[in-house]
Specification:
Blueprint (H helix, E strand, L loop, with lengths): L4 E6 L11 H9 L3 E6 L5 H9 L2 E3 L5 E4 L15 E3 L8 H4 L8 E3 L4 E3 L6 E5 L5 E4 L19 E4 L3
Parallel strand pairs: 1-2
Antiparallel strand pairs: 3-7, 4-9, 5-6, 8-10
Helix pairs in contact: 1-2
Length: about 160
């Protein structure tokens, strides 16, 4: 990889193509490269392994962030997974998120992520409220949910420079 910036848009890929591997991407980042990774709620093994290498962990496939108190009543499908996030949940960094003083609520729908505290370069751009949790929205909850993905971070950056 001989670029300064790499953007990976991934979903269910179990591995990267060609000579690109988790080790190769990690080496690129260690050498000062910038990496932006996006994906859907059913992430493959490759992106999960890459995230772990850099201090992040995604919840299981088919799970989503759920909040019964802060969901969009017009766009939500009844599972309370279209989360309405207030500006208080955003990182106070105008360069990354803009002027939060005049910002309207942000919508989020997706998988939960944890940024490990050992990752000193993490930027928690969007944090869930204390009423949010991660679970499979199409599965009935028949027991108390003790998810380690409570207080999840739906969106996070890590600055590797």
């Amino acid at each position: 990889l001989r670029k300064n910036h790499v953007y990976l848009k991934l979903t269910t890929h179990q591995k990267f193509g060609g000579s690109v591997s988790v080790e190769e991407i990690s080496r690129f980042v260690d050498d000062g490269g910038n990496l932006l990774v996006t994906g859907g709620s059913n992430l493959g093994h490759a992106v999960r392994e890459l995230a772990l290498q850099h201090g992040f962990e995604f919840d299981e496939s088919d799970t989503m962030v759920i909040d019964h108190n802060s969901y969009d009543t017009h766009l939500d499908d009844g599972h309370h997974t279209t989360i309405v996030a207030s500006k208080r949940q955003l990182l106070n960094a105008q360069l990354l998120v803009g002027d939060t003083a005049s910002m309207k609520p942000v919508l989020f729908k997706g998988i939960a992520m944890i940024a490990h505290k050992s990752n000193l370069l993490r930027l928690e751009v969007l944090r869930a409220t204390s009423t949010a949790y991660s679970y499979n929205p199409t599965t009935a909850v028949d027991e108390v949910c003790y998810s380690r993905f409570l207080h999840t971070i739906p969106l996070s950056f890590s600055n590797f420079e």
